[in-house]
Amino acid sequence: MSTRQIDGLSRRAFLASSSAFALAALAGRSLAQEVKNIDPSIAEKITIADPSLDLPPADGPFRWLDSGGQKGVFYRQFFPKYAETRGIEVVYDGLPWNEIATVLPLGIRNGSAPDAFNLPNGMPPAVAVAEGWVQPLDDLIPDLDAWKAGFPAGSFVEGVNVIEGKTYGLPYTSERRCSSLLLFSRKAMELTEFDPGPGAPLTWDQFRTAAAQITKNSGGSMFGLIMGGNQGNRWSANLVQLANRGGAACASSVAGCLSCVDYRTGEIVVDKDEFVEAMELLLAIRDDGSMFPGIMSLNAPQARAFVEQGGAGMILQGPWNVPIWEANNPDFDFGLAPTPAPEGKDGKTIVDALPSAANTMYVNAAAKNPAYAADVFHYMGTLDGQVAWGNVVGPSDPPIFPKAAEEAEMSERSKAVIALQEKQVRVSPVVYARSPGFTKVAQLYEEPTPNLANVVQGLYTGQLSGVKESLSKLKDAMNAALDKAITDANAEGANVRREDLVYSDWDPSVDYAS
Amino acid sequence: MAGVKLTGVAKKFGAVEVIRGVDIEIGEGEFCVFVGPSGCGKSTLLRMIAGLEEITAGSVEIGGRRVNDIDPSERGTAMVFQTYALYPHMTVSQNMGFGLRMNGVPKPEIAKRVAEAARILQIEPLLDRKPKQLSGGQRQRVAIGRAIVRDPQVFLFDEPLSNLDAELRVATRLEIAKLHGQLQGSTMIYVTHDQVEAMTLADRIVVLRDGRVEQMGEPMELYERPANLFVAGFIGSPKMNFIKLRATGDGGQPAAELPDGSRFALSGPEANGAATLGVRADGLKPVDRDGVFTGEITVVEQLGDAVFVYVRTPWGQEIVARFEPGAKVRVGERISFALGGRTHFFDADGRGLTGVTPGNTISEARLSA
Amino acid sequence: MSATELHIPHTPAATRQGLAARIWKSRIDYLFLVPGLLIFGAFIVWPLIASEYYSLLNWTGFGAAKKFVGLQNYRELLQDEFFLNAFKRSFLFTLATVPLQMFISLVFAILLNNKLLKLSTLFRTMIFLPVVTPVVVIAIVIALMLSPFNGPINGLLLDAGLFERAVDFLGSPQLVLWTLAGVFVWKWTGVTLIYWLAALQTVPEELYEAAKLDGVKTWQVTVFVVLPIIAPFAVVIGLISAIAALNVFPLIQSTTQGGPFFASEVMEVFIFRIAFAPSGGMVPQLGYASAAGVLFGLAVMILTIFQIVAVRRARRKDPANG
Amino acid sequence: MADVALSHSSAITSRQSFLNPRRRRLITSVVLAAICIVWVYPLVWMVSASFKSNSEIFAGGGLIPENPTFENFVRAWHEANIGAYFFNTLFVTVGSVLITTISAALMGYALGRRPFPGRATLFGLMLFTLFIPQGYTIIPVFELLSNLGLGQSLWGLMLATCGHSIVIFTLLFAGYFSQMPKELEEASRMDGVGPVKTFWYVMLPLSKPIIVTVVVMQTLQAWNDFLLPLVITLANPALRTLSVGIYSFRGEHFIDWGGMTAGSTITIVPVIILFLFLQRYFIDGLAGAVKG
């Protein structure tokens, strides 16, 4: 807990944590559609400099695939302009994560994969490199080192976007996000005795009371809390982040071999008291009758919409709600606060690494237009590009350059979210950097079923009983799966040990850095 | 025009032998009827001539040309099916012209031939109808018309009348007979299980049983001189009466004993082998005395032009005899018969015996004496 | 009549010719088969064979790393409670839907089989409408209709005072499978109705007339005359319906995806989840999913064979339908 | 049926004479009508909702929209891209119907009528596959299409869609053809018409009931198909079919009930019209399937 040392990011845990966004990005897809009132002047503010390198004539259209959502909002404005400036044709596809997971491998195999893409969720970049899907940027971006130097420390991490010394991914958005902010309708909150805000989180008890008061005082027209209950990642993210606030120091992964690992001890902590109590909090709210009915058939965007429409007062969701609500319904008066914390606690929200692994872009090894991919990558790694990004995307996927986040034009609320996240979110150690053999573990790891998200759902619907027992059982299953993956990886020469997960010097209240 | 010659023709379905070496020669322009009970192979034989069934052994010649391996359509035959096999979705004229059309015959030629066939069959008003809109008899004509337009050397009819009602059957039978006259020189082969059709239509009848030819000949020849029990029983209506005989010839004088023990003398070279007596209804004459046998009348059928009287013999057999119209007979009466007309004798294997004639009744008295 | 003769040629003749000669002789027949066989082979037989091969692998379905593991997938499956539960649910679902669907459609069929009922075609069409409505649309409509918030059905139930709180038909683990079964029955009853109507056509009109003259009541005719006559059809109809009920993937995938907490996860959804849509960062396991498919296929086949045997028996018992 | 069994004798009693056949029929009709209205209520509700604003839908209310609007349809058409999806679906449907019908008819003819060596084996194989769930075979199917270069094309989708029910259709045709009198073929054979022409001019026109059944069933199949187009069009949303399009539209517009119902309404109208036109043949054909 003294010196800081960033070795790199746990790709797998990382990807896993980002699969929170993975499924949220199913929702993400909807964002593109939902944000209708984009200010067209934003596109005008995108300035595209001269090419960073000599660009050959394009071979067919330049194709870009990512998971859409807010990214789609940006690229749908960026690429037409880029295409015009460079005189090429660009095809942009924004697909939900589960579709990327199916499409991309198939596309790679039959040669139809785009020039630049997000890797499927859960796929360690080392695997993509080993399978020959992607090519390094080293030869594509001439001034690579200078370009990389413009990024904040911790952006390029061995095992995450750097493999065996070669740089593969473009890490252009920050993972410093809290996906379980307390977002609420002010009208609803007025029915309670509380007045939360970015600097004034609710305690768990207050949170529960507020939910009950909204339900009761609205005369049944509004429920206190809503969640996208059929979206597993919302359950796990909310549970882990509630537990985080109670002091559990682990990332809110829904899956992956290193989910819910407290690196101080290297143990999976999913059945610790913080978790049990967080779960009991959700069950209490359910039993109070303060939870919106039928959340098990709602996904996150639906849940979000019900808040906007006045069906529910509060929701635990990510920063991306802010621009969506602001764009869709400027009259909707909502507020935000950090995730509620247990009385007297103020734990940090933990993420697995600084750059968003999910958003990291890669160049297809068989790209027809790698130079253009590199050109766009280069642009996105400049302050211009980062500001342009921040202007559009706001706090949802914050630009990785802190300066860009400051310079970008955002609403007050968006700025407040970014400030809150800077204060609240901390980066954990990355085991892949210190023990590269863990990439093998990540490949071989077989997620137990039910996973954390399933267990939380099962407890909520009453199909599982006994919070502690269920979570302990889950922990055992996760431990067994992890140990098996380590054994299997060692059989293939990974040379790793469970003890590699222990970072006794880690202080969860500050970013872990090398 | 051509004749048809079958030599040693055989057909097997797997291990089942359906046709067992058939030799038939049908002359040009002849109307030949294959007759026999169900399952005798007559239809199969016809279909082998048509080319619809493969020939396992032997050869089929049409017009002197061996056609075993020639496609049905090339054999110069046309077939009229029992079920008519009209194409339900085509009009009458389309039905008749279909084969020609498919084989690229020019349209005017098709029209001409269809019109000609329709004229012959008097179905001109029906040409635009669909088979569904036709009566059974009309359908039958269309089916024949379809054969006619092909101008075949050999017409093949597979039980063409069996789907018609009794009255229509008689009428259509006549039509077919007329048609044979009209279509000069066309060879026709006709399959039926109905011996009346065979008798009325045929120039020559082939009686088949179990895939073998039992007898072949002109109708009256078969009627009068059946080669065996089977033919004798099959041809003629009502069915010939068969009475079991026990040969009791002692020494030079052959005689036969009826089941009731009464006896009569036989003459002829093969008389000793006689095992069955066959006598048609009109071969029994009622007599006051010296009858061959006496029986009791059980049923009297008045047909108008004749009366059929069924008599139970002392040994319990039912025998039918033909009486002239107006004959005064009543059920329950006893009546004696003598062998008054043609009689037939068959040996133990059912083979017809030639030249055997019955003699006098050998009375009980003489016997006992 | 030479009916018997007519049938003989149909049996494939084992003539003295060799197989090669017979094949050559049937060359045109094979030509007829070509397009169908291509489709059949490519999209049915090959995938089946491939699946059985995959079921012996430890393979994600994407990467090149295929590891032959023999029957390990099968061994694991038999201990996988999610597999066993999905298996159980599939059969429960079938057991719930098939008799219900058959009964409802039979009642409809008996009522609609009246020639004098002028509107019977209209009614039949109405009952058939859900059949022609795409499953995805059904899923949407049902989700909206049954929504515990604002949904018209819950509105009705609450207004009628039947429940105090809205019923979460698709979100409650206790209700979801039965809700889906109800939706399934609703969607497909129209087809079964047609089958029953066809079966009823085989009841000779004279029987109704005879019963009428005998002074037998409607229900008596139905129970004692009509039902026994159409009973043999029940087996066929049941078979068709059972096969259909085992293929509920589109309905469940487009409504609950097997949730909540696997409460509506039937076999096909399980297979799909393992093969394609693992939650979170789970890796697809095509080999495992294939093994599940093979096991399930085997079970369905055994069930089918049982039913076919039953059909045969029923037919044999009733020579009228032989 | 209600009147069928009303007996002579019992009709005399007063209770029965009140329930005379006509009245009974009337009562049956009324009851059936009520049930049928409930039966189609969800669909009627859907159509009704498609003409309402979202706020009106949420407010509940009757089936008749207070302020009928076409806005939902406009929105659904544009945002769900229904126009393009419609033609994709049409293309796949028409193509697969043609291919399936012809292949199934040809194969059914050979299986039903021609005693070629291997017939029994093929029959057995087809029956065997009939009962095996096909949901999980999508990966090999996709691999195959990819290897053929059709992995991301409507042609590939069309072909794969043909695979769904080819066995059932073939068996339907085979059953139907095997019941046809063989004299028809023999007659045409005597006429010198070859097997192909006989099939085309004689057998195929006669199998119209089965053709209609297969056309309708395959249309329903292609129009409804979900998993296959979902996977095949994943990489290229421009190729989506209506079902997939509506499904993803739903994923994006969970709260836009008006848009969803409008999109759904647009999707089902063509199939329903097709069904109404062909229902007699279709129902006869289906009925044949169970009798045969």
List keywords for this structure.
heterotetramer, B: 369 residues, alpha+beta, Rossmann fold, 6-stranded mixed beta sheet, 33% strand, C: mainly alpha, 2 domains, two-stranded antiparallel ribbon, 14 helices
Chart the SSEs and their pairings.
The complex is a heterotetramer of chains A (514), B (369), C (322) and D (292).
Chain A lengths: L10 H24 L6 H5 L16 E5 L3 H17 L3 E5 L2 H14 L5 E3 L6 H6 L3 E2 L8 H6 L12 E2 L2 E2 L13 E5 H4 L14 H14 L5 E4 L5 H15 L14 E2 L4 E2 L4 H16 L11 H10 L2 E6 L3 H8 L5 E4 L11 E3 L9 E4 L5 H11 L2 H11 L8 H6 L4 H13 E3 L3 H4 L3 H7 L7 H10 L5 H25 L23
Parallel strand pairs in A: 1-2, 1-3, 8-11, 13-15
Antiparallel strand pairs in A: 3-14, 4-14, 5-6, 7-11, 7-12, 9-10
Chain B lengths: L3 E10 L2 E11 L4 E5 L6 H9 L6 E6 L2 E2 L10 E4 L11 H11 L4 H15 L14 H13 L5 E5 L7 H17 L4 E6 L2 H7 L2 E6 L2 E6 L1 H6 L4 H6 L6 E4 L1 E2 L7 E3 L5 E5 L8 E4 L4 E4 L5 E10 L4 E6 L5 E6 L10 E6 L3 E4 L5 E2 L3 E6 L1 H5 L1
Parallel strand pairs in B: 3-8, 3-9, 6-7, 7-8
Antiparallel strand pairs in B: 1-2, 1-4, 4-5, 9-10, 11-15, 12-13, 13-14, 14-23, 15-21, 16-20, 17-18, 17-20, 18-19, 21-22
Chain D lengths: L13 H5 L2 H30 L3 H5 L12 H9 L2 H32 L5 H12 L7 H10 L6 H10 L2 H13 L3 H9 L4 H12 L1 H17 L2 H6 L9 H11 L4 H35 L1
How would you describe what is shown here?
The complex is a heterotetramer of chains A (514), B (369), C (322) and D (292). With 514 residues, chain A is an alpha/beta fold. Chain A folds into 3 domains: 11-167 and 359-410, D-Maltodextrin-Binding Protein, domain 2, CATH 3.40.190; 181-351, Periplasmic binding protein-like II (D-Maltodextrin-Binding Protein, domain 2, 3-Layer(aba) Sandwich); 432-495, no CATH class. Chain A has helices spanning 11-34, 41-45, 70-86, 97-110, 125-130, 144-149, 186-189, 204-217, 232-246, 273-288, 300-309, 321-328, 370-380, 383-393, 402-407, 412-424, 431-434, 438-444, 452-461, 467-491, and strands at 62-66, 90-94, 116-118, 134-135, 162-163, 166-167, 181-185, 223-226, 261-262, 267-268, 312-317, 334-337, 349-351, 361-364, 425-427. In chain A, helix 9 packs across helix 19. A 6-stranded mixed β-sheet of chain B has the order 6-7-8-3-9-10, with helices on both faces. Chain B has a 5-stranded antiparallel β-sheet with strand order 16-20-17-18-19, with no helix packed on it. The model of chain B is unreliable at 364-369 (pLDDT under 50). Chain B has helices at residues 42-50, 92-102, 107-121, 136-148, 166-182, 195-201, 219-224, 229-234, 364-368; strands spanning 4-13, 16-26, 31-35, 57-62, 65-66, 77-80, 154-158, 187-192, 204-209, 212-217, 241-244, 246-247, 255-257, 263-267, 276-279, 284-287, 293-302, 307-312, 318-323, 334-339, 343-346, 352-353, 357-362. Chain C folds into 2 domains: 17-68, no CATH class; 75-141 and 169-321, MetI-like (MetI-like fold). In chain C, strands 1-2 form a two-stranded antiparallel ribbon. Chain C starts with a helix and ends in a 5-residue tail after the last helix. Residues 1-15 of chain C have low confidence and may be disordered. Chain D is built from 15 helices and no strands. The two termini of chain D are 25 Å apart. The chains are: A alpha/beta (514), B alpha+beta (369), C mainly alpha (322), D mainly alpha (292). The interface between A and D is medium-sized, with 23 and 17 residues.
